[in-house]
Amino acid sequence: MTILPITLCAAAAAAAINIWLSIRCGMVRSAKKISIGDGGDMDLIARMRAQANFVENTPVVLVLIAAVELARTANPWLMGVAAIYMLGRVGHGVGMDGGPLGFLRGVGTLTTMLTQLGLGVWAVSIALDM
């Protein structure tokens, strides 16, 4: 049986971040008494998009992490990539609130794109035995 410790840690971190993003949506819902939908509230829309964007991108990253880890076990660079991705996603979530930390949205977006690109290239280079 193959155990993928990096993938497992990344998936656990992703679960924690997803819960955190969900709680952030719930906090706005509760404060503004919006039960269903977004009520046209820009704060709630931003937080909902932060979580949706996380859910849209993270499965691809987790699949790529697992594929690379299966091919190249115990690679410390892969753990670093996973950690940077997760930090970028937290930054994106915080940055979606705007304000003085609004720049973190762009940092998180760039981190996500570079992570996917880097892992994709890494996966192809493994497949082509480069």
From TrEMBL:
A cellular component term, taken from the record's GO annotations: membrane
Where it sits in the cell: the answer is: Membrane
Broad class of where this protein is predominantly found: membrane
Database matches in Pfam families:
MAPEG
Species, as recorded: Novosphingobium subterraneum
Its protein name is Membrane-associated proteins in eicosanoid and glutathione metabolism (MAPEG)
- Could you list this entry's UniProt keywords, alphabetically sorted: Membrane, Transmembrane, Transmembrane helix
UniProt lineage: Bacteria, Pseudomonadati, Pseudomonadota, Alphaproteobacteria, Sphingomonadales
Highest taxon above the source species: Bacteria
Matching InterPro entries: MAPEG-like_dom_sf, Membr-assoc_MAPEG
